[in-house]
Structures are given as structure tokens and as C-alpha cells.
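lol ok so funny story. i was supposed to be doing the assay writeup but got distracted and ended up predicting the structure for this chain instead. priorities right. anyway since i did it might as well share w the group, maybe its usefull for someone
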Amino acid sequence: MSISNPEYSHSKFLRPIEFDQESHHAKGSLLALSILAIGIVFGDIGTSPLYALKSCFDPVSGIPLNKDSVYGVLSMIFWTFVIVVSLKYVAFVMRANNHGEGGILALMALALRTAKQGSAQAMTLMVMGVLGACLFYGDAVITPAISVLSAIEGLTVVSEDFGHVVLPLTLIILIGLFLFEKKGTEIVGILFGPIMLVWFGVIGAMGVYQIAQGPAILVAFSPWYALSFMCQNSAIAFAVTGAVFLVVTGAEALYADMGHFGIRPIRYAWFLLVMPALLLNYFGQGALLLRDAQAVSNPFFLMVPQYLTLPLVILSAFATVIASQACISGAYSMTSEAILLGFVPRMKVVHTSEREIGQIYVPFINWVLCVIVVIVVLAFRKSDNLATAYGIAVSSTMLITSMLSAVVMLKSWKWKPLTIALIVGSFLVVDAGFFAANLAKILEGGWFPLVIASVLFLFMMTWYQGRQLLRQRAINNGIGLEDFIPSLLEHPPHRIEGTSVFLTAHIDFVPPAMLHNLKHNRVLHEQVIFLKMSTWDIPYVKSHRRISVREMSKGIYLVRAVYGFKETPDVGLLMDALRDEHGIDCPPMETSFFMARDSLVVKEIPQMSIWRESLFVWMMQNAARASDFFRVDSNRLIEIGAKIEL
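and the output, tada:
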């Protein structure tokens, strides 16, 4: 499996394959898609009112709870929404889509098209993209924990006696969510939109109720209060900036989930419902704090009369489960993309829906996340403590997104450098400010998602570099297929009935499995297919453009099958397509698949240290079998082993 640019082919004998965009967005009216987007895209950012403003006025930060500070913080929140979400993501970054798909890896692939393969620039862009993906996983660990924990903590507003059940109930909900992932994605997905629609309606109404009792709070929309607060209380303002950033921790999801719905539904949902509802709630919390300073303990749940607190806790629990599930599903999608892009070893990917290609379940990722999330909840115990660990990973990802976007604007869109400097420079100033403010959280818990991201970065880059070294070794030691086939047919071995399919990673060279088969079995099937499956840096490839075939000699075919990085290869479907579209019949009972199963031997080389070689070998040994990943029928599979020195 390889990743390449779709605009050209390295093969000297396969015709270029034409690529074009095929919409894989969910189908429906703009209103229906907007409602679906509200559930899936805005779950994370939509539940931030549960903890964000409370964290801003945490007594530990030393922020005085008075009119100036409340107005200043609310003004910072409003302009953060305007600059970071509305302008940066909705207006600009979402335009940098890879055939309709968004997210850090899609943006990386888009930026890589502008760089020469193997150059220092290409490696830098790749490292930035992979680092951003790793930081996303750090965020995926914190989001379920802080969201559900902050919702269940609302029980303490009903009665302090509920304090002892917060932690166990949070763990039960989270573990239940991970247990439900395999079969529940499609079922829960149907409920996402309506429940979150109710959620945003409720939190908006809560804000209106509180603002009506103190409408003067609306003057905080003026940027003057933010600037005044930051100038007069610079040290405190810098500390609170990290807490203010919590209001936009889900902004990256707008870009990452763009491929499911398209740009327009997300934009409509943001401007017409989500942003107004969030701002009303934050300003309502501010109005409450000015009337009752004691409400700082939990301003969100104290916005409603006590008899409505329990129903609000239940609704909050549903909303946070949805936000968590969307984040976990995002981790599945990111893993699937990383596998096909060559940064993660193959692992089992289960499709949970026959209708939607994007609904997948990755068991290994699910249970690793489950264990880590449980550990996080037990270690931090309170949402206030988790808030100190939250934000550093997201702010780092946002910074990387801005830099990669600048490359796309310059190289792909051909914008003038001055225009890019003004636009991206403004975003970078804001991103850098949030990043610097969140750095102060490292010793207070921010180190945790950074450690997760660092470990994953080591694994992903080791895997990528190890695969590149194996590829280069295969090229250096390979036998050219173009010369080999004519010489083989001059004095052919015994031909037997049936079809042999040799899966190969290098289309220009003889597959090792074929060499071993000829050496030991000394036979050649009447029909031989050399099959190369490639992954290109676009999300999807139209099915009728997927396969390219060349007949090298009578009964001997060279086949390339091309997939997007959001698709999963399936050899069975590929064989059907060869029969239907190209007339190459491979009856299942008469077809055998040959694959090499390499056994690596660690050897000291200058390109990689011994301990990283050992890590790569361990990853190879524990990766899912290629035959399982490509869905090859095990009853028709012949694996031939070989030792390879790395």
C-alpha cells in the first residue's frame, strides 16, 4: 500500500488514472443536513458552557469577581468566537478542503502536493500534520472525561449528598459508551441532531432568562472591555486566556467533520443556532455572577430554578455522551486515514453501517481510549482539575492548522504573500497567544495530553520511516518485472489450471511471493495477476475509475487498484470489478492469493537507531495481517515467509 499524488503516476507502463471528485456528503435538504451537523459537529464546543466560564473564575487564578472582570472575560469570549471560529475556520480554513474532506491529515495531504517528494519541505509539512493528528488523540482522551464529569457534577447542585456518586456514575456512563460503540454508532447517530437541537435551544433560553434580569451585561460585546481588562490586569488576563480558550476547544471539529455534510450546512448551523445559543448562555452566566457571586461554584446549573436542575443534569448527560461519542468516532476516522496514509500499522476496522462509509469502529483504539479515559477520571477526579489539562493539545493543533493553511494559500491558491501575511498572521497572533497561555497549564496537568501525543508521534514516525526503509530495500534488491516476465516465458515452468493473484507493494518489481513459489513449487498458473493497491492523497475515488489493467502477456495481467485515504480496500469486490469491467474472470474456487509474510531481523543501520528498529519490528509483528486488512478470503490464501534484514 502506498500514498501518492493523484496528478501523476510513478509507473512507466500504467496509463494515468483520471481522478475527479465524488460527493460522499450525507444526502438531504440543507435544513436536514444542518440539524445532523448540529449533533455531530458541534457536540464538543456545544457542551463547553458546562465548565468554561467556571474555569475562568476559578479562585486559583486570582481573578477578582467584579463587573470589570466579568465584562472583560465575556468580551474575550465573544471575540474569540468571532476570530477563531467564525473568521479562521468557517470563513477561511474550511475553504482548504481536500475534495470536500477536512481535518489535519487532509490538510497535510493538500499541502504536501505543493512540495517535492523527499524534500526537507515535504518532511517538515509531514511532521506538522502527523504532530497535529497525535495532538488530536490527546484531546480525544480529555474530552469525554471532562464533558461527562462536568455534567454529572450538576447533581451536587441538587444536593451535596450526591457528591459521592459523581465519580462512579461518570465511570459507568463512560464505560457504557465504549461498550456501546460497536453496535451503537448508527443508532446513536439518528438521535444526535434532535437531542443537540433541544440542548442548544435550552441553553439559549437559559441565557435569555438570566440576561432579562440584567440586560446591561450585553454591553460586553464591545471589544473595549476585553482590551481594557487585558491592559489593566495583564498578568491575570494572561492566566485567564487559557481558560477562555476552553470555549472553542471543539472548533477543530468544524473542519474535521466537514466531509460528512459539506461547508454550507455547518456554516448555517453555526451562525443561525450554535453561536447565538452559546453566547446567550455565556452572557447569561455572566449576568448571574454579577447578581450572585456565590454562583461561581457552578454557574451553569445555578442558572435555572432548583426544581429544574435534575432534568438539566439529565439533558447535560445526554449532550456530553453525544459530544464524547462524536470525539471517539473522530479518533476512529483519524486512525483509518493514518493507516491508509502509511503512518499507523494495519489494524481491524469494522464498518458499522451498510449505508454510510464513514461509520466505522476500530476495536483496538476503542479499548485503549476506554482504559486511558478511566485512568484520567480516577486521577483528576473533578472537572476543575481536568480543565487545567485541557486546551494545550487543541491550541497546538490550531497553531499547526494555521501554518499548513498558509502553505496551501501560497502554493495552491496562489494568493499574494502580503494578503496571506495579513490574514494568517492575524490568526497566528491569536493562536500563539492561546498556545502561550495554555503552556502555563503544563505542570498542572497539561503534560498528560502532551505525553500521549509525544508517544504516538514516536510510534507513527517510526512506523513511517521503517516502512520507507523496507520500500527502499525492496527497490534496491528487486528484480524488474518488465524484464522478468519475457525471460520467464522463454522457458516457462509447468502451467497449471486456475488463477494466481500476487499482491505486491512495488509495481515495478517481481513480488517476493512469486519468486519463492517458483523456487519451491516450480509451477505457474494459466492466469497470473500482479495486484498493486495504492492509496492516493484524495479522500475518495469513483468506483469506475478505480482499476487500471495492462496485459503483459497472454494470461498475465498487471493490475493497479487505487483508493482514497478514507476508503477501505476489499479484494473480493475488486475481483468482481475485474470480471464485470475488464472481462478477467477469477472464479473463487479456482483462484489462489499469494502474499509474502516477512520476518524482520534487526541490524544496525545509520538511518535508524537500534531501539527504534526494535520498536518497528514489534509493531510489524503486532500489526493486523495484510490479508485481513485487504479482506482476502483466508481459505484461498497462501502466505510465504521470508527473513529480511532491516
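The radius of gyration is 27 Å. DSSP finds 24 helices and nine strands in the chain.
back to the writeup now i swear
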